[in-house]
Each structure stands twice: as structure tokens, then as C-alpha cells.
């Protein structure tokens, strides 16, 4: 017995038409870049953009001037490995059983 291919062709045509319609809805604005530094044992006064006179960090200072810098950060653990695992997975360190 031959299978009717007409419903499948209709489904493919419908998907093609919908994708062509939504192609014009795509925003052509340039996407912004996001740089995230996770540094172990970095104090607030170790970078020039936060007021350090001892360490010279011209590239980080330029990034801070051209972009956004944050003044408050909180971690759920006192060592870096649970924080790194949490950032990579999106889960709390307690759920990952890494402490």
C-alpha cells in the first residue's frame, strides 16, 4: 500500500513559510559583548580602576572605563571551586555537593 506524502509536504511547506515570515523579525542590532572575570584572591584594591596605586592594570582599567563595573559581589562559599562550579552549572554549590 502506498503512503500518502501530501500531509508531510504540507507540513514542510508550513514550516518553511513560517520561518520566512519570522526571518524579517530578527533584530539586526549588534549584540553587546560580555566579559566576566572570576579571579581567586583578588582584593578590591588590587586593580587600578578601583583605586590601586601599587598595581598597574591598564587593560582592565580601559575595559572598566568603556563598560560597566560592579562594586558588590557575593559568594556562597569561601573557596573558589564551589563558586566556579556554580557559575558553570547555574546551581547552588550545596546542590552540587561541592564545598
Automatic annotation (TrEMBL):
Keywords: Calcium, Hydrolase, Metal-binding, Signal. The keyword Metal-binding applies. InterPro entries: Alkaline_phosphatase_core_sf (IPR017850), Sulfatase (IPR050738), Sulfatase_N (IPR000917). The keyword Cell wall biogenesis/degradation does not apply. Residues 32-97 form the Sulfatase N-terminal domain. Its cofactor is Ca(2+). GO terms for molecular function: arylsulfatase activity; metal ion binding. Signal peptide: none annotated. Belongs to the sulfatase family. This is Sulfatase N-terminal domain-containing protein. It comes from marine sediment metagenome.
Amino acid at each position: 500500500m502506498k503512503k500518502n506524502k501530501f500531509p508531510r509536504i504540507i507540513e514542510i511547506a508550513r514550516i518553511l513559510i513560517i520561518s520566512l515570515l519570522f526571518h524579517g523579525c530578527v533584530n539586526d542590532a549588534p549584540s553587546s559583548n560580555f566579559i566576566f572575570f572570576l579571579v581567586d584572591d583578588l582584593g578590591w584594591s588590587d586593580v587600578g580602576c578601583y583605586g590601586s596605586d601599587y598595581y598597574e592594570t591598564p587593560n582592565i582599567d580601559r575595559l572598566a572605563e568603556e563598560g560597566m563595573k560592579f562594586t558588590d559581589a557575593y559568594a556562597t562559599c569561601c573557596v573558589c571551586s564551589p563558586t566556579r562550579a556554580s557559575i558553570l552549572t547555574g546551581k547552588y554549590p550545596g546542590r552540587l555537593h561541592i564545598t
